[in-house]
Design a protein that fits this description.
- This protein has 17 helices and 15 strands.
- By secondary structure, the protein is of the alpha+beta class.
- It has three domains: about 1-75 and about 130-200, Ribosomal Protein S8, Chain: A, domain 1, CATH 3.30.1370.240; about 75-130, Arc Repressor Mutant, subunit A (Orthogonal Bundle); about 220-455, Bira Bifunctional Protein, Domain 2 (BirA Bifunctional Protein, domain 2), CATH 3.30.930.
- Strands 7-10-11-15-14-13-12 form a seven-stranded mixed β-sheet, sandwiched between helices. A three-stranded antiparallel β-sheet has the order 1-6-2.
- The protein is elongated and about 130 Å long.
- The structure holds phenylalanine (PHE).
- Phenylalanine binds next to strand 14 and strand 15.
Length: about 450
């Protein structure tokens, strides 16, 4: 029976009687498996056409073997049918029935349908009615079968299982006949004019739709944001990093980097052709920088060379964000009252390098600095440990290094737990008095700083 008929019968029954106390009895009255009724119940329930209450019972369920007999007949009846009037040899029947022969033989003998004469099997009935198959079908349909259930249990054809069936009544949307709503206007509807009479399913404006595969954040930007958040959590504020073009003065001279330093060679640095030089440099400060390079001061001997303004005026693409730090510290030194500061930046720098797997001519630098009275190398180490542990690197080592603008300087190594080795992760130091004092920062103010790369 097609499910449309089951649905029709169920709704008609409810319409006439108001309820169906037991879906299992209802299924057997229709002569359909309970499963078919259950499918219809679930569908109608979803539309509130009916309401159902679960009835949980232990019920007899056919084993796989029994399901086969219910569908194709019992082996004992097949055996009787296979024996001609004159009898058949036991060997031939064994051959034909295989494993099932013993089962069939025992049951047929018990029913007194067969007898044995030496090696010959004879049947004692014309034909056998398959009562077992009928019984199994009734159990399968969920009918309440009285005895001889014992026989079924003995032959292990049934097991007891928890099953659910339902009691039913009309729901708030009850109808005797369910309308089928059209979902699409088809070419056929248009051609035949059917569309005029069709009732269409409402649009579901609340449906979410398929997620669309659009953009995702770039991994580098994700790391950048994570680092930015760490700086903000630690109370740092961001430095303005919008000037990719910088003068040699701020990129090198202000940082006490001598004019003959190899990094200032065009092999390492991109110099600009137009405009090739800058005209805006703070003259007073420039003079102090000139002095400290040439002859020192502030307890320093200087480099003792002939400092040239032309060299300082050359424009370049900044090679490090420490140029920005220099500008910020100079600005800070011009304020009337010194206040301690924590600054950070994350932005692009440019180096004239051979491009390979891990090197491009531009990359992002991350830089942090703290300026305050009386800072020490211990403060620097403490801040670095805090900063890097927030990035998931808590095993650090420091190695003495050299930068023209810091003393002492330290390379930072982190232990990589997966690679099981120490990896260089940054550079750091305390800015030199030769850099800070010409700017005009008060004596006794120290600046601890560090830099690392976002992608390298
Ligand atoms: N400017 C250094 C570099 O480019 C990093 C650094 C910043 C070192 C601040 C010390 C202090 O590697």
């Amino acid at each position: 029976q097609p499910s449309a008929d089951v649905e029709g019968a169920l709704l008609a029954h409810l319409n006439a009687n108001g309820e169906i106390p037991d879906s299992r009895s209802f299924a057997s009255s229709l002569g359909v498996p309970h499963k078919d009724v259950e499918d219809v119940i679930k569908r109608l329930r979803a539309f509130h056409i009916i309401e159902s209450t679960d009835i949980t019972r232990e019920a007899w369920v056919l084993t796989d073997e029994a399901k086969g007999y219910a569908a194709g007949g019992s082996p004992e009846v097949h055996l009787v049918a296979a024996i001609p009037p004159e009898g058949a040899s036991r060997a031939a029947l064994e051959e034909e029935f295989g494993d099932v022969f013993d089962i069939a033989r025992k049951a047929a003998a018990k029913n007194k349908w067969i007898r044995f004469e030496n090696d010959l099997v004879l049947r004692t009935v014309e034909d056998a009615r398959d009562e077992l198959q009928e019984l199994l079908k009734r159990v399968e349909n969920g009918e309440v079968v009285p005895d001889p259930r014992k026989e079924l249990e003995r032959r292990k054809l049934v097991t007891k299982e928890k099953t659910i069936w339902y009691s039913l009544k009309k729901g708030p949307e009850f109808v005797v006949k369910r309308k089928t709503l059209a979902t699409n206007v088809t070419r056929e509807h248009l051609k035949s004019g059917d569309w005029k009479d069709l009732e269409f399913k409402d649009y579901n404006y609340g449906a979410q739709g398929q997620p669309i595969a659009i953009g995702y954040s770039q991994p580098l930007l994700e790391v950048r944001e994570a680092i930015q958040n760490i700086f903000l959590e630690m109370g740092f504020s961001e430095m303005p990093t919008n000037m990719y073009v910088e003068s040699s003065f701020w990129n090198f001279d202000a940082l006490f980097q001598p004019q003959q330093h190899p990094a200032r060679d065009s092999h390492d640095t991109f110099f600009l052709k137009a405009p090739a030089t800058t005209t805006q440099l703070p003259d007073d400060y420039l003079e102090k920088v000139n002095q400290v390079h040439q002859s020192g001061g502030y307890g320093s001997k200087g480099y003792g060379y002939d400092w040239k303004r032309d060299e300082a005026e050359k424009n370049l693409l900044r090679t490090h964000t420490t140029a920005v730090s220099a500008r910020m510290l100079y600005k800070l030194a011009q304020e009337e009252h010194f206040a301690p500061k924590r600054y950070y930046s994350i932005d692009r720098v440019f180096r004239n390098e051979a491009v390979d797997r891990t090197h491009l001519a531009e990359f992002h630098q991350i830089e942090g600095l703290i300026c305050d009275y009386g800072l020490t190398l211990g403060d620097l180490i403490g801040v670095l440990e805090d900063f890097f542990s927030r990035l998931g690197m808590s095993k650090l080592r420091f190695k003495p290094a050299y930068n023209p603008y810091t003393e002492p300087s330290m390379e930072i190594f982190g232990y990589h737990e997966d690679l099981k080795k120490w990896v260089e992760i940054g550079n750091s130091g305390m800015f030199r008095p030769e850099m800070l004092l010409p700017m005009g920062l008060p004596e006794g103010v120290n600046v601890i700083a560090w830099g690392l790369s976002l992608e390298r």
